[in-house]
């Protein structure tokens, strides 16, 4: 008996000692051993503009927010600071692939954040899969997201597909057509790039099915800087609705050209860039009524708080489309880590099945995709507000016809 | 049709303005300046910054930016180009060296612009109300840009044709080898030509800033367009550049409205290639 | 015998290397070998003739695009063959029409050519096939790509060495020195330039085809990235474009420098790159190898 007790006591002693050591070691690592997070995003080249507006500011803002709060919380309640390793992919997929290999096999980072843009995310996807990292593609618009999610089961596609945005827009216009506020003629232009082509391909049948007629339908090359000719054709086509599936330079150029030539269609829709913070300046302070891809619930306190923090940290508000999604994807990551730690497999499972509380509300992915998205937004009273899908919580009614410039 | 004509001409005005400077730099200073578009962008960014920070209107900024462009060109030529000119025995060697050196300059300026102004698309709204020209609504800022082009080109053509300075310039452009024989300081003239070209690039930048949206990485588009025009008009041929610039604007607008906007740029390059093959001395050059 | 043995032994060592490096190390090696291939192939034509071509990416991108279009239709070796044929045909057409342009006109033409090819492919995809953006799901490992590229690089340098000693090589050098002299000495100028241009272009096309499976997603704006053309030129010139191993010697250190810069100075990367470019033009106009030769000659003179 005594021997056993002694032995038991010894064991308890040993246990306490070792757990005390472990505890000490635990606190030591919390201070000495940060979580390394790597990303390769375009600082230079053609993608630098998009990455500089949507991706980089949000990554930096999130890291600051987390580190100011003491770091990432682990499942055991300890906190670890984030340390960032960043590379420039020079807007080249070859460099991007190498940078991710470097992050994974050389720097052996704990997590990798995805690059900016559809093409970059696709080029990165096989590598994320090979190294086992979850990939929260928050700036990738692709109709093939379901296939990609099957192919790479740790990839998450958060920004929908061209088809979604096109039919979302048609739904909004259909409402106006039924109400008799616009005629059934539409002038549509699209940029000759993956994004523009995806949208126009989906939009053609959707418009026709809804009873619209495409009276002007042209594609212009990426890099076009003069839109006077295109817009004067659209103006003389007699369509009440002008739709441009465009990239930022085109969206901005067409807006300015439309204003200067006094082109005032009842619906003026532009693609990427319409939700950018600079858009009101581009539109000479008269953005109201312009529709564009994306949108946020501008009345939600979380979004308002996020806009304020972003403005304070970056110097300008975020764009009202992919920025909030990007930040929300990072919040998902943060919460998933708190629940399951840094194990990549557990993390991926948690991301796929968990429910997260983010600035865009409660998020749960369906088949590795974020489907609860805003497809169409409109500038109203100086803020870019979501108008479609109309039945989503926080949607406002579209203003059609748009007030004249 | 009238719409196409007017829009095309007004667009061509900016192209021509951009090309004038490049044709001077290549024609007189023998420097093929691949960083030309970036020089334009520097001016454009400065104008926008002045407008946004201090409310200085672009037309007023023009008065300061153009001399500043001249000064920058002067410095660039003295520091960077002159050593290349001095060491090259043949014209071909200088051409290759200048292309490579200015390509480095392109990256350098682009990097500096990115660091100082960020990667955002930038634009300002300045005098962009529509003005009725023969029943076609054209933005006032475009008309002003067109006006700047006409004034600059007119002054340049007059100065080259009628003044002693112009005579010297033309002499250097035509026969740099024998110009020293008649007492011309070729180095000084080349420096003036390069600086003047940079000043025109700055003027082009001001007009770009007035009505276009641009970003720090977009300079090469301007360089390309200007190059196309310079080749079409004939190297060093100011009047040729003016006509070719206007023609390019017309062609782009015409292709965009009647054929397919998707082929606008392809058409530009195709015409460019055809001119290169058929008349490398330019449409208006002496064969 | 050693002249042949030494390179062969080096090749064997290089081919065995992937077994000893990390994924990233392998990625670096692929990048370096790709640029060695590009710079050497570029120099095969431009190094001797001094025709500065900026059309590298027109061929490189075409190669990648051919793979993207055909990778699900044809077996891989056939895809490569088709890519080589298309690249060769393109080079033939371009060469026939443009090789009489000289100096700066040729430079600008080749620059415009890359843009034109990109625009036309975009237009074709948009209006005819209705797909922009294609996928390459080929099951080729990074090692496989490395070995293929290494073989291509070896062939390129071997071919350059071989041509060097043939009449064609001599003719090319005469063209580079003085075209008028070349024409007077009975060299068929057009044919000489054309053969070298086509050979060089086929290799560039193949390089694009081989490396493309690493990209997965291919779009005209991705594969026709003009930076590739510029990098190739500066690499070849740094090493010395008219030396056999000059382009390779320029490509490897420059590639590694750029990699290091983009890792450590992502914001100021392009400033450094610009300075480096200017520095090469000013300090080493004939390439590093010529600089080394000059230095050695000076030392010899000093010793004597």
UniProtKB/TrEMBL annotation, chain A:
Gene3D superfamilies in the cross-refs: 3.40.50.2300
Entry keyword S-adenosyl-L-methionine: no
Signal peptide positions (record): 1-24
InterPro entries for the chain: BCAA_transport (IPR051010), Leu-bd (IPR028081), Peripla_BP_I (IPR028082), TAT_signal (IPR006311)
Location of the Leucine-binding protein domain: 34-382
Biological source species: Palleronia marisminoris
SUPFAM superfamilies assigned to the protein according to its UniProt record, in alphabetical order: Periplasmic binding protein-like I (SSF53822)
The UniProt record lists the keyword Signal: yes
Family according to the record: Belongs to the leucine-binding protein family.
High-level lineage: Bacteria, Pseudomonadati, Pseudomonadota, Alphaproteobacteria, Rhodobacterales
Keyword annotations from UniProtKB, A to Z: Amino-acid transport, Receptor, Signal, Transport
Protein name in UniProt: Receptor family ligand binding region
One of the GO biological process terms: amino acid transport
Pfam families named among the record's database cross-references: Peripla_BP_6 (PF13458)
TrEMBL record, chain B:
Keywords assigned: Amino-acid transport, Cell membrane, Membrane, Transmembrane, Transmembrane helix, Transport
Cellular component terms (Gene Ontology): plasma membrane
One MF annotation (Gene Ontology) recorded for this entry: transmembrane transporter activity
Pfam families: BPD_transp_2
Subcellular location per the Swiss-Prot or TrEMBL entry: Cell membrane
Stored PANTHER family: AMINO ACID ABC TRANSPORTER PERMEASE PROTEIN, BRANCHED-CHAIN AMINO ACID TRANSPORT SYSTEM PERMEASE PROTEIN LIVH
Family stated for the protein in its record: Belongs to the binding-protein-dependent transport system permease family. LivHM subfamily.
Protein name, UniProt field: High-affinity branched-chain amino acid transport system permease protein LivH
Species in which this protein is naturally found: Palleronia marisminoris
Lineage: Bacteria, Pseudomonadati, Pseudomonadota, Alphaproteobacteria, Rhodobacterales
UniProtKB/TrEMBL annotation, chain C:
Membrane-crossing segments per the record: 25-45, 52-70, 76-96, 103-124, 144-163, 194-216, 269-292
Top-rank lineage group of the source organism: Bacteria
GO cellular component, as recorded: plasma membrane
Major subcellular location class: membrane
Topology versus the membrane: Multi-pass membrane protein
GO-annotated molecular function: branched-chain amino acid transmembrane transporter activity
Subcellular location: Cell membrane
Keywords: Cell membrane, Membrane, Transmembrane, Transmembrane helix
Pfam families hit by this protein: BPD_transp_2
Record protein name field: Leucine/isoleucine/valine transporter permease subunit
Lineage: Bacteria, Pseudomonadati, Pseudomonadota, Alphaproteobacteria, Rhodobacterales
């Amino acid at each position: 008996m005594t021997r056993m007790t002694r032995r038991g006591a010894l064991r308890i002693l040993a246990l306490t000692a070792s757990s005390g050591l472990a505890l000490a070691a635990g606190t030591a690592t919390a201070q000495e051993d940060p979580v390394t997070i790597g990303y390769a995003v375009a600082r230079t080249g053609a993608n630098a503009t998009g990455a500089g507006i949507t991706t980089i500011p949000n990554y930096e803002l999130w890291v600051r927010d987390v580190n100011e709060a003491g770091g990432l919380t682990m499942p055991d309640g300890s906190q670890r600071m984030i340390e960032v390793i960043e590379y420039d992919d020079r807007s080249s997929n070859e460099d991007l692939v190498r940078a991710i290999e470097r992050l994974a096999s050389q720097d052996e980072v704990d997590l990798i954040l995805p690059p900016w843009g559809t093409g970059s995310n696709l080029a990165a996807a096989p590598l994320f899969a090979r190294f086992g990292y979850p990939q929260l593609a928050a700036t990738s618009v692709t109709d093939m997201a379901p296939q990609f999610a099957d192919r790479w089961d740790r990839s998450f596609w958060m920004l929908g597909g061209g088809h979604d945005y096109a039919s979302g827009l048609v739904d909004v216009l259909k409402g106006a057509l039924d109400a008799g506020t616009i005629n059934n003629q539409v002038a549509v232009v699209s940029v000759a790039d993956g994004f523009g082509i995806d949208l126009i391909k989906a939009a053609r049948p959707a418009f026709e099915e809804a009873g619209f007629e495409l009276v002007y339908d042209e594609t212009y090359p990426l890099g076009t800087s003069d839109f006077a000719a295109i817009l004067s054709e659209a103006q003389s086509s007699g369509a009440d609705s002008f739709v441009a599936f465009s990239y930022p330079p085109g969206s901005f150029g067409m807006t300015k050209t439309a204003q200067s030539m006094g082109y005032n269609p009842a619906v003026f829709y532009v693609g990427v860039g319409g939700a950018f913070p600079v858009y009101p300046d581009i539109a000479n302070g008269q953005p109201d009524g312009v529709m564009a891809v994306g949108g946020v619930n501008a009345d939600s306190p979380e979004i308002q708080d996020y806009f304020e923090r972003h403005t304070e940290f970056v110097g300008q508000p975020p764009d009202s489309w992919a920025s909030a999604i990007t930040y929300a994807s990072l919040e998902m990551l943060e919460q998933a880590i708190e629940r399951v730690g840094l194990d990549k497999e557990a993390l991926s499972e948690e991301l796929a099945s968990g429910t997260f509380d983010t600035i865009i509300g409660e998020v749960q992915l369906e088949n590795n995709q974020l489907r609860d998205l805003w497809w169409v937004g409109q500038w109203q009273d100086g803020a870019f507000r979501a108008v479609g899908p109309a039945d989503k919580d926080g949607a406002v009614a579209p203003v059609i016809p748009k007030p004249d410039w | 049709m009238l719409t196409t004509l007017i829009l095309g001409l007004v667009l061509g005005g900016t192209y021509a303005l951009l090309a004038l400077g490049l044709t001077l730099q290549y024609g007189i200073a023998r420097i093929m300046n691949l960083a030309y578009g970036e020089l334009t962008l520097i001016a454009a960014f400065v104008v926008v910054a002045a407008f946004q920070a201090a409310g200085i209107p672009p037309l007023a900024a023009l008065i300061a930016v153009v001399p500043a462009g001249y000064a920058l060109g002067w410095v660039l030529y003295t520091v960077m180009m002159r050593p290349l000119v001095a060491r090259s025995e043949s014209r071909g060697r200088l051409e290759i060296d200048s292309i490579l050196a200015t390509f480095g300059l392109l990256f350098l300026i682009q990097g500096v612009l990115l660091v100082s102004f960020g990667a955002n698309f930038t634009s300002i709204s300045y005098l962009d109300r529509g003005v009725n020209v023969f029943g076609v609504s054209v933005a006032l800022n475009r008309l002003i840009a067109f006006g700047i082009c006409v004034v600059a080109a007119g002054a340049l053509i007059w100065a080259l044709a009628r003044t002693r300075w112009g005579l010297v310039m033309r002499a250097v452009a035509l026969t740099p080898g024998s110009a020293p024989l008649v007492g011309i300081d070729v180095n000084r003239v080349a420096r003036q030509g390069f600086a003047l070209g940079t000043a025109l690039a700055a003027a082009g930048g001001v007009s770009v800033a007035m009505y276009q949206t641009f970003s720090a990485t977009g300079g090469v588009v301007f360089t390309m367009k200007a190059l196309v025009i310079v080749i079409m008009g004939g190297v060093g041929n100011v009047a040729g550049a003016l006509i070719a610039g206007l023609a390019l604007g017309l062609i782009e607008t015409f292709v965009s409205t009647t054929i397919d906007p998707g082929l606008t740029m392809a058409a530009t390059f195709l015409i460019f290639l055809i001119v290169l093959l058929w008349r490398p001395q330019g449409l208006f050059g002496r064969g | 015998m050693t002249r042949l043995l030494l390179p062969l032994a080096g090749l064997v060592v290089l081919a065995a290397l992937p077994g000893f490096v990390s994924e990233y190390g392998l990625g670096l090696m692929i990048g370096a070998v790709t640029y060695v291939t590009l710079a050497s192939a570029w120099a095969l034509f431009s190094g001797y003739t001094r025709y500065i071509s900026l059309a590298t990416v027109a061929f490189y991108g075409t190669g990648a695009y051919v793979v993207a279009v055909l990778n699900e239709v044809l077996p891989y070796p056939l895809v490569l063959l088709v890519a080589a044929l298309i690249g060769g045909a393109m080079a033939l057409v371009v060469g026939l029409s443009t090789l009489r342009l000289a100096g700066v006109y040729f430079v600008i033409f080749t620059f415009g050519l890359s843009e034109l090819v990109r625009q036309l492919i975009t237009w074709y995809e948009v209006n005819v096939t209705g797909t922009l953006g294609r996928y390459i799901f080929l099951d080729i490992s990074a090692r496989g790509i490395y070995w293929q590229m290494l073989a291509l690089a070896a062939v390129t340098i071997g071919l350059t060495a071989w041509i060097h000693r043939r009449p064609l090589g001599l003719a090319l050098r005469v063209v580079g020195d003085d075209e008028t002299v070349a024409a007077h000495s009975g060299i068929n100028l057009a044919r000489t330039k054309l053969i070298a241009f086509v050979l060089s272009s086929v290799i560039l096309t193949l390089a694009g085809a081989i490396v493309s499976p690493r990209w997965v997603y291919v779009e005209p704006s991705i594969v026709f990235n003009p930076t590739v053309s510029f990098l190739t030129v500066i690499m070849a010139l740094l090493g010395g474009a008219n030396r056999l191993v000059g382009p390779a010697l320029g490509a490897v250190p420059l590639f590694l420098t750029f990699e290091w810069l983009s890792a450590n100075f992502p914001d100021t990367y392009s400033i450094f790159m610009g300075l480096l470019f200017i520095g090469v033009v000013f300090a080493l106009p004939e390439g590093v190898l010529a600089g080394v030769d000059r230095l050695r000659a000076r030392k010899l003179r000093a010793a004597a």
